[in-house]
Amino acid sequence: MAMTLTSLPTPLEPAPRWARALNLRADRLWIKRDDLTGLGGGDNKTRKLQISVQAALDAGATVLVTTGAPQSNHARLTAAAGARAGLEVVLVLEGEAPEADRGNLLLDRLFGAEVTWSGDRDLSLVQDETADALRERGGRPYVIPFGGSSPETAVAYRDAAREILTQIPSLDHVVVAVGSGGTMAGLVAELGPDRVLGVDCGAVPDALSTVSQMVRAMGEPDPCATLRMDTSLVGAGYGALTEEASEAMRQLARTEGLILDPTYTARAGAGLIKAVREGRISPEDTTVFLHSGGLPGLFGHSEL
Asked: Does the bond joining 262 to the residue before it have cis omega, within 30 degrees of 0?
C-alpha cells in the first residue's frame, strides 16, 4: 500500500513587502512554501522521503537508518516518517551528545527515534556499523543517504518544479538552499541551470560537483559549466550563523512574518539579497524563493 507523507501542492505566495525591501517590483517575488509539506514540522526533505520510505516498505525493511548533523532537518523528518510508516528509526548524528536536547534533536526523541553519536569517527562508517549491528539482531535496515538525496529521490524536486510551473508558468529565477544537493538537482533537471540559483550552505565539501553529478545521474546533460551556485555565504562553516543569514532572517520576519532557519533558508535568503544587490536578479524578473523549512532547528542554536 502506498504511503502518503506529503500534503501537495504546497502554496505559492506573493511576497510584496519583502520585494519592496529589496527594491524589486512588488508583484514579481514569490515564496514557494515547502515548509508546509505537512509531516513532522514541514520541510523539503519530506518530498524526498516519500520516495525513500516507500522503497523501504517495498523492500520489507523494519528500520530506517540515516545520518546528519545534531540539528539535521532530514534526521527529524526521517524520524517522523518512520513513525507514520510504522518503522523503527536509528539516527547516526555527528559529534557528541549535547547536555540537553533542543530544537530538532528534541523532536527526534519525541518521534521515537534512537540516536547514535559518531564522536570523532567518520559518519558514514558509523552508519554502516550501525546497520550491520541491526542485521545481526534480526532487523532489516534500509539506509537513507545523507540529506535523503540521491538521483532517485531528486526526482521529487523535478516534480516540484513542474508543480511550480503550474502555479506560475513564466519565471526567471528559483532561489534555493543547497545542502546535500538533491533539491537543486531536481529543479535544474526540470527548469535548466539558467533558472535555478543555488546557495551553498556548506553541508558537503563540493556542492557544485555534488549537484552536477546528481543531475547527470538523472539522465540530463552535464550542467557543471552553467550551474548558478553562490558559494560565498558558508562563513565559518555549515553549523555557524553568519551575519548575512541573520540579516535575511530579520528581513523576511519583519516584512512577511515568515521564519527562516539559520543553516539553510537564511543562507538562501542571503543569497537572494546578494543577487539583487549585485544585479543578477533585476526588479522586473519573476523570482521564486523556495522556503525549504527548518524552523525547529532555530531553537537548537543558542547563539541566536
From this structure: no
Least confident of 2-11, 106-115, 189-198, 271-280: 2-11
Q: Give per-residue pLDDT as tens, 50-64.
A: 999 999 999 999 999
Same domain, 135 and 278: no
Average pLDDT over residues 79-98: 97
Model's pTM, two decimal places?
A: 0.95
User: Does a structural domain hold residue 189?
Assistant: yes
Give the domain CATH number at 122: 3.40.50.1100
Task: Based on the fold, state whether residues 192 and 101 are members of the same structural domain.
Answer: no
Pairing assessment for the beta strands 196-200 and 228-230 based on DSSP bridges: parallel
Per the annotation, the verdict on 180 as an active-site residue is no
Cα-Cα end-to-end distance for the chain: 43
Whether residues 89 and 212 fall in one domain: no
Among the listed residues 52, 72, 149, 150, the single catalytic one is: 72
Number of domains in the chain: 2
Burial class (CB in 10 A: 0-12, 13-18, 19+), 37: buried
- The predicted-structure confidence for 100-111, as pLDDT tens digits, reads as follows 899 999 999 999
159 in the same domain as 28: yes
Q: Strand, helix or coil at 89?
A: strand
Beta strands of 109-256 (E only): which ranges? 114-117, 141-143, 173-178, 196-200, 228-230
Q: Please provide the DSSP assignment of 239-285 as one string.
A: TPPPHHHHHHHHHHHHHH-----TTTHHHHHHHHHHHHHTTSS-TTS
